[in-house]
Amino acid sequence: MKFTDDQIADIGEEIISVLKTVYDPEIPVDIYELGLIYDVQISDEADVKIIMTLTTPNCPVAETLPQEVKDKVKAVENVNEVELELTFEPSWNKDMMSEEAKFELGML
């Protein structure tokens, strides 16, 4: 089934809402505001590809966090398949955080 641009936009907003419910256990800020999500691509058939990183390659949640992201995004209504690519290029740094995240962590 092909979705319209508006439907894809709605699915995208829903995905972002879900991503904001996933937290890095070491930092009290969600992974979206932290800037760990580099890209979310959604095809006409609502296949989703997420490119994300972790705060460090040795992050204690390296196994569980990507799986949690994948499971939560897959649960979004109308989402078909979810492919998750973990990358460390470019490496995450504090500049990638949103203003809100920096404020939350007392960095502003």
UniProtKB/TrEMBL annotation:
Residues 13-83 form the MIP18 family-like domain. It holds the Pfam family FeS_assembly_P. It comes from the Bacteria. This is SUF system Fe-S cluster assembly protein. It comes from Chryseobacterium zhengzhouense.
